[in-house]
Design goal:
The protein is mainly α and 210 residues long. The chain has 2 domains: 44 residues, Arc Repressor Mutant, subunit A; 143 residues, Orthogonal Bundle (Tetracycline Repressor, domain 2). It has 10 helices and no strands. Helix 1 crosses helix 2, helix 1 packs across helix 4 and helix 7 crosses helix 8. The radius of gyration is 20 Å and the shape is elongated.
């Protein structure tokens, strides 16, 4: 779980880029290393070499591999949050449709992350073990986005009134299975999407008839 900056430079030590550009180049190089060899088998020296810089210079930007992977994970989670937030704020769609879109979007983003990344499980396991706070913060944001949609559904008359944040937490928990790496990787996409849609329909029905 690490972002892959698309505008990273290939030789940050020799270039006159800003510190932010150098950090993006390092993250890009680390992404490629982690994707090909995994987290455990990648060294800071190898990442530095791929960037055309010394290991000492690399440590000016990241204290460790843990720091690199945490930054990459945070970048990816921020991107997910931005997409989900945009769906939650889209008042042109009904609340039920937005709930469906949130789940479909999460599944799509996980599927894209998995593609061509055989070591993803190792990276996710590391983040869950060492930086669980990142996932917890992301999940809290997700719950607030879903709660906003539920509140809109109540205002529309589509959902019955209730504790929207608690309901959002239950909704996320009930649909989390469809966004797990192993399920998305091993499942047939069309069948998995159909199952997820059926579960969301059941949850929407429950929100309407409590």
């Amino acid at each position: 779980m690490i972002s892959n900056p698309s505008r990273a430079t290939s030789a940050p030590e020799a270039a006159s880029d800003s510190g932010a550009d150098v950090r993006r180049a390092i993250l890009c190089a680390a992404h490629k290393r982690f994707e090909r060899y995994g987290f455990a088998k990648t060294t800071m020296a190898e990442i530095a070499s791929d960037c055309g810089m010394s290991a000492a210079n690399l440590y000016r930007y990241f204290a460790s591999k843990d720091d690199i992977i945490a930054t990459g994970a945070q970048d990816w989670l921020t991107g997910v949050d931005q997409e989900i937030a945009a769906i939650a704020e889209d008042r042109h769609a009904g609340a039920g449709e937005r709930l469906h879109r949130i789940v479909r979007t999460k599944m799509r983003l996980i599927a894209a992350l998995i593609t061509g990344n055989p070591h993803l499980d190792e990276l996710v396991e590391h983040v869950c073990r060492e930086r669980l706070d990142l996932l917890q913060s992301h999940r809290a944001l997700l719950h607030r986005h879903i709660a906003r949609v539920i509140d809109d559904g109540v205002a529309e008359g589509a959902f019955a009134p209730g504790d929207s944040l608690a309901l959002a937490e239950s909704f996320e928990m009930a649909t989390r299975l469809f966004c797990q790496n192993s399920i998305v990787r091993e499942g047939e996409p069309a069948k998995l999407e159909g199952s997820a849609a059926a579960v969301v329909d059941l949850l929407i029905s429950g929100l309407a008839h409590r």
